[in-house]
Design a protein that fits this description.
The protein is mainly α. It has helices spanning 2-36, 40-50, 67-92. It is 75% helix and 0% strand.
Length: 96
Amino acid sequence: MMEQHLNRANEAIAHLKQALDNYQEVKESIKALSQYYGDEEWNQDFEDDENGRLPHDLKRGVLSEDGIWNMLQENRELMNDMMDTVSEAMKNRFYE
């Protein structure tokens, strides 16, 4: 049973480390999107799209009303979950 605990923990830690590495690589993208959303540049891009001034084959996910907002909300929730997890681990000394 303890061997299973060890194997599960090692696998979860490896996955979490990879996920954190991936997140570190996109942090700047999240910051850039946060600054872009609702900014004058976003408003101009949105208006240009509404008026047909953007190429028809251009992807428009960032111009949806909810695309960036939903991602930022999920990011906030993830940060809160991570803080809760770290706080619980520190309180219960799971790091030793």
